């Protein structure tokens, strides 16, 4: 989606924006019993609005509303054609409100308006439309039993799904859970991250406008340790779909064990390797992909190609090209349609990123470009594109997820060495490799321990393909038809014909 709006147009719209700030439970706005959350604009450090914060009591109300809606059959029992129509309507409303949603997302989270308008919002709309289309195309199975019986295998919704999501793609990460969960006929309680609640609240309003019945999609802004934990421990949540850090993912496994053994699906952190072999078919394209792979979305991307491995023969040439792209991606005002990078989500994350930069310097990595906070006169939280050259893989910046625009680059000599370095991580989410050798492309792809492998590209994707990781990046897949498995269970019905 493109727009002719200028920086001044967006600023004028921003000054008039009055975002909705209440929770939505059972189709009604709800103040929340916790101390309100500040929605801070990361581009300026100024508070945009105060947002309701749900406590355990509010969460319980939301889960009860979701359960009532589910048991009543108002959504799960709705004729499929009608359910599909309403989810398609939601997609249409998102498209209709794309500029407003893009503005909300950019102001709340700090990412460039060209990204929210060009990717986050249209991709969310497409995801609802795509899952809506699955609703009347799902068939059940008859098992190949002996003739004396008929055994059917039917797919059923689980009931109440809780979704707990992060702040880096607020609407889209929520959508990857909510769309397939609703398509299967479940009720949902969605908790956005405390840094970025506004688009989720607007989503809840649009869902009601689209005819999704009250109680079917509840929006509960709140903090992780209160609202998130209350969902994790709630005895009447059937399944909890989480995207966020590995540390929090581990907590959800515990919450499940401590409560009702609810299903847990985890999309967690990453430290994805991006390998450039010396037979790379197009060094310029690979250098641009490596830059976008780490600096896009301010580096706040779970699949960011944050570990770069370049074969020795092309290392110097590649790094020169990469540095030129890094220089062209300096952060700017997120409302400027030409900004390539925006602001880091909040002051805490800014401090975290800068601490990692310090640790890189302290532990002996060579800082090739960047490393500093910029635009501090705006009051916002900006970090310039940063590239470290790393002599050893034991550095903290090579091992740990930074979630900021900081790249750890290393050189390698052989394919074995590249694979060993790439796989030496607790994470296994994204990975990329560039080579002109077809056999090598297959060979290396097979041996990379990751949920996603890109060959001669990076970040490409579509709602049609599964997204998720292995190792401590989590388990279960968002997107594609496979995501429906997470929000349904299989029932076997054995009918004796004797
Ligand atoms: P986070 O784990 O701090 O928070 C994620 C969500 O969990 C938020 O809604 C938060 O309120 C909640 N939460 C936090 N502490 C909690 C607790 N004690 N109990 C219950 N809920 C709690 O993560 P973040 O900082 O918001 O997001 C960044 C992380 O998300 C990174 O690690 C990134 O890699 C990961 N991520 C993964 C994917 C993926 O698809 N694998 C996509 C985007 C982001």
From TrEMBL:
Keyword presence, Manganese: no
UniProt keyword terms in alphabetical order: Oxidoreductase
Range of residues in the leader sequence: none
KW Transmembrane (keyword) present: no
Domain Aldehyde dehydrogenase, chain residue ranges per copy: 37-492
A GO term, aspect molecular function: aldehyde dehydrogenase [NAD(P)+] activity
Positions of the catalytic residues: 267
One family name in Pfam for this protein: Aldedh
CDD domains: ALDH_GABALDH-PuuC
Family statement: Belongs to the aldehyde dehydrogenase family.
Protein name: Aldehyde dehydrogenase
Species the sequence originates in: Parapusillimonas granuli
């Amino acid at each position: 989606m493109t727009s002719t709006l200028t920086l001044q147009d967006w600023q004028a719209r921003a000054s008039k924006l009055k975002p909705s700030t209440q929770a939505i439970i059972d189709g009604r706005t709800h103040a929340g019993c916790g101390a309100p959350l500040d929605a801070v604009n990361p581009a300026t450090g100024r508070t945009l609005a105060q947002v309701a914060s749900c406590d355990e009591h509010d969460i319980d109300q939301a889960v009860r509303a979701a359960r009532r809606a589910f048991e009543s059959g108002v959504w799960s029992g709705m004729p499929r054609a009608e359910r599909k129509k309403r989810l398609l309507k939601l997609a249409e409303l998102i498209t209709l409100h794309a500029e407003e949603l893009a503005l909300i997302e950019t102001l709340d989270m700090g990412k460039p308006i060209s990204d929210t308008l060009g990717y986050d919002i249209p991709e969310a709309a497409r995801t609802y439309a795509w899952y809506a289309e699955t609703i009347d195309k799902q068939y059940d199975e008859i098992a190949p039993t002996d003739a004396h019986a008929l055994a059917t295998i039917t797919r059923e919704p689980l009931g109440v799904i809780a979704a707990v999501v992060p702040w880096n793609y607020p609407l889209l990460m929520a959508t990857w859970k909510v769309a397939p969960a609703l398509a299967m006929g479940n009720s949902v309680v969605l908790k956005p991250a405390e840094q970025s609640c506004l688009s989720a609240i607007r989503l809840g309003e649009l869902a009601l406008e689209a005819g999704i019945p009250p109680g079917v999609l509840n929006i509960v802004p709140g903090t992780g340790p209160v609202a998130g934990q209350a969902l994790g421990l709630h005895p009447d949540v059937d399944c909890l779909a989480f995207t966020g850090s590995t540390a929090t993912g581990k907590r959800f496994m515990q919450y499940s064990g401590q409560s009702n053994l609810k299903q847990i699906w985890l999309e967690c952190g990453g430290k994805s390797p991006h390998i450039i072999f010396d037979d790379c078919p197009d060094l310029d394209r690979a250098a641009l992909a490596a830059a976008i792979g780490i600096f896009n979305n301010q580096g706040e991307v779970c699949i960011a190609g944050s570990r770069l491995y370049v074969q020795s023969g092309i290392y110097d040439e590649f790094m020169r090209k990469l540095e030129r792209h890094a220089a062209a991606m300096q952060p700017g005002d997120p409302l400027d349609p030409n900004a390539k990078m925006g602001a880091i989500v909040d002051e805490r994350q800014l401090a975290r990123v800068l601490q990692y930069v310090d640790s890189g310097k302290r532990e002996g990595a060579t800082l090739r470009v960047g490393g500093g906070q910029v635009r501090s006169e705006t009051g916002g939280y900006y970090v310039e594109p940063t590239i470290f050259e790393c002599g050893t893989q034991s550095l903290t910046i090579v091992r740990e997820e930074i979630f900021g625009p900081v790249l750890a680059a290393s050189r390698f000599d052989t394919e074995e060495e590249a694979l060993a370095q790439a796989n030496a991580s607790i994470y296994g989410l994204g990975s990329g490799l560039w080579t002109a050798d077809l056999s090598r492309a297959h060979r290396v792809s097979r041996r990379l321990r990751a949920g996603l492998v890109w060959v001669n590209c990076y970040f490409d994707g579509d709602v049609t393909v599964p997204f998720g990781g292995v190792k401590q990046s989590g388990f279960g897949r968002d997107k594609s038809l496979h995501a429906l498995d997470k929000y349904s269970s299989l029932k076997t019905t054995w009918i004796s014909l004797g």
